[in-house]
Design a protein that fits this description.
heterotrimer; A mainly alpha; B alpha+beta; C mainly alpha; A: mainly alpha; Helix Hairpins; 3 domains; 48% helix; 1% strand; B: Rieske Iron-sulfur Protein
Chain lengths: 258, 170, 224
């Protein structure tokens, strides 16, 4: 069945009324057979796409996207870090020849040269040969650039303790906690724990939040005396009665937060 | 000729498979976003708790009086305390009635005996809408349905009100 | 019925050659992984586009909940992430898609480079592709700020400091991006939002259209 009846234009139109026929691209100079894009080739492409999609969704489900605490411009202890694909540029600025007086080399010179060369690659590498062996300079420059990007990214990323970083910057749910300052344990908390764990048990750079912990009063008392993880032992100095009050206080705040 | 027929069915088969695979990809891509988008429809409304409106039962007479209070409203990530108001009175049986002051015509605010020409009725100043004391709309005036009635409960002699409930037209 | 509607439109607008060009063109064997498995390297371009589609879709849906305002941006993202059903997944798609698209783009670029496929007559399309790469990096940079968490804020501050170091126009460039000489705040966020959601995608679409039209015009480069 013939589709497309062609256009009839008015007589004074400058566009030709002749129907321009369509010639599909001919790949007969290439070896091997060709096949139709629709549906033969597209089906294979979409099958590959489906496999990719399943992998992608699995990644998404397995690793929820991270969200740190709300931006706090006064937080002086925060170490900034860009997204991973900018790490190599970030790391570059740590080198002496790319910082200080030579900062322009770091932010404009080297990246500008590299990206400029990438943009103009067809004109820099304008020989007739396409095989990598026929253009050793272009290929070796690219390999060198690639190696330095990988190296810089690795250098930058390996210096970061990603896990503790994520742990320390967890978002704090809006505090529904009620701090009962009249609780006998509060005075003990204030004296022994507050400097690190914060006035509302929210934690700080030095210590985790005490909200949402799943310890019993006895376990809390034990941790207060003997420490846990990065928390050293012996921080708590007081009587057993005070220890008991402290543990009960922390448990009571946790109950109020639920 | 049989060869040609075979080709057509093969092409059709590929087309169906292609549509299937495309549908699978579209579904995989869209199921989560669409579920997220329609979440408000599926979520149960959190508002609806009865709120202390700050009037004791003893204070309520058979004359409608206006009561104002605020409710805590959680709108997604935004918390606010919008004010609500009601006309509250006791009917002949001594039952407490709390009417929403929102005119069912176009949403203006009605008031009890708001016009001197219409005693013993709720009056809406926007388009002269009228309601009887029990909230029934007066035929011949713009509103077509009665005033909404608040969910209510008396706890320890204090009036608690919830959401206004619409009523069918008279 | 559908056939009649199609014929009515076709008679006036002559749409048949448009889709015929896309549907009927032949694909040579050397790019077809079903014939030579090593031809899977030709998939990276298509997969990049696929991830771009994922990004557009998930981004459109995310703006249903997101507000570009320093008071509420983080709260709305947190709400989306914790309270809304599947909100975490949709945000995850956009978050991981941003990384995956860079990886795919890199692989696609390397494939074209090492095959020397950018040589005459395809120089222009290579340059359009590199510009697409820059646009994508810009989208990554501006999108990083939007959740308004600590990592976003401080990374952007560093980024703006770097922009300020540019000779002659550095200060102006920084103010243009940040909206204020000294503060990285409310005006920065709205600017980054506008750039991320309207300006860069507009450029992206235009460049993508050129990229694809050129591919159809010039065809795929031959085997090595």
């Amino acid at each position: 069945m013939k589709r497309g009846k062609g256009m009839k234009f008015v007589g004074d139109s400058r566009i030709s009324a002749e129907k321009t026929s369509y010639y599909p691209k001919d790949y007969s100079e290439y070896p091997g057979r060709t096949e139709a894009f629709w549906p033969n080739f597209l089906l294979k492409e979409w099958l590959a796409g489906s496999v990719f999609l399943v992998g992608f969704l699995t990644l998404t489900l397995a690793h929820p996207s991270p969200l740190e605490g709300m931006a706090d411009p006064t937080n002086a202890s925060y170490i900034p870090l860009p997204d991973w694909y900018f790490l190599f540029l970030y790391e570059l600025l740590k080198y002496e020849f790319a910082s200080g007086d030579f900062i322009l080399i770091g932010i404009l010179g080297i990246p500008g040269l590299a990206f400029g060369a990438l943009l103009l690659a067809p004109f820099l590498d304008n020989g007739p040969g396409r095989k990598p062996r026929q253009r050793p300079i272009a290929v070796s420059m690219m390999l060198l650039a690639l190696a330095s990007v990988v190296w810089l990214t690795y250098e930058s990323a390996s210096a970061v303790d990603w896990e503790s970083r994520a742990e320390a910057n967890k978002p704090i749910p809006e505090s529904d906690v009620t701090i009962d300052v009249d609780h006998p344990g509060y005075a003990v908390y204030e004296a022994s724990c507050m400097s690190c764990h914060g006035g509302e048990l929210e934690g700080s750079a030095a210590a985790p939040s005490l909200i949402g912990i799943e310890y019993s009063a006895e376990e809390i008392a034990d941790i207060a005396v003997n420490g846990l993880g990065a928390m050293p032992a012996g921080l708590f100095t007081g009587s057993d009665e005070e220890l008991q009050q402290l543990a009960e206080f922390i448990v009571s705040v946790n109950e109020s937060a639920e | 000729m049989s060869d040609k027929k075979h080709q057509v069915t093969r092409r059709q088969f590929l087309n169906y498979t292609l549509t299937g695979v495309g549908g699978f990809m579209a579904a995989g891509l869209l199921v989560s976003p669409i579920r997220m988008a329609i979440d408000p429809v599926l979520k149960e409304s959190s508002s609806g708790d009865l709120v202390n409106v700050g009037i004791s039962v003893d204070e309520i007479t058979d004359v409608p009086q206006r009561v104002d209070w605020t409710v805590e409203q959680v709108d997604g990530w935004y918390k606010s305390e919008p004010s609500r108001s009601a006309w509250v009175y006791k009917d002949e049986n001594g039952e407490i009635v709390a009417l929403s002051p929102i005119c069912t015509h176009l949403g203006c605010v009605v008031s009890w005996e708001g016009s001197e020409e219409h005693p013993n009725r709720f009056y809406c100043p926007c388009h002269d809408g009228l309601y009887e004391k029990d909230g029934t709309n007066v035929p011949g005036t713009p509103p077509l349905t009665p005033l909404a009635v608040y969910e209510q409960e008396v706890r320890d002699g204090i009036l608690f009100l919830g959401n206004p409930i619409d009523r069918k037209g008279a | 019925m559908l056939q009649k509607i199609y014929d009515w439109i076709d008679e006036r607008v002559d749409v048949t050659p448009i889709w015929r060009d896309i549907a009927d063109h032949e694909v040579p064997e050397h790019v077809n992984p079903a014939h030579h498995f090593s031809a899977f390297v030709y998939c990276f371009g298509g997969l990049t586009f696929f991830v771009v589609v994922i990004q557009i879709l998930s981004g459109m849906f995310l703006t249903m909940y997101y507000v570009p305002d320093i008071e509420n941006a983080w709260k709305s993202v947190y709400y989306l992430q914790t309270e809304v059903a599947h909100g975490q997944i949709v945000r995850g798609m956009h978050h991981w898609g941003a990384s995956v698209v860079i990886v795919m783009l890199l692989l696609h670029t390397l494939r074209v480079f090492f095959q020397g496929a950018y040589k005459k007559p395809r120089e222009l399309n290579w340059m359009v592709g590199v510009l697409l790469f820059f646009v994508m990096l810009g989208l990554g940079f501006t999108g990083y700020l939007l959740p308004w968490d600590n990592k976003a804020y401080f990374a952007t501050q560093v980024g703006l400091e770097i922009a300020q170091q540019v000779p002659f126009i550095g200060d102006e460039l920084k103010v243009l991006l940040a909206g204020d000489e000294n503060i990285v705040g409310a005006q920065t966020l709205t600017r980054f939002f506008a750039i991320h959601v309207f300006f860069l995608p507009a450029i992206l679409f235009a460049l993508l259209a050129v990229h694809f039209i050129l591919i159809r015009r010039q065809g795929i480069s031959g085997p090595l």
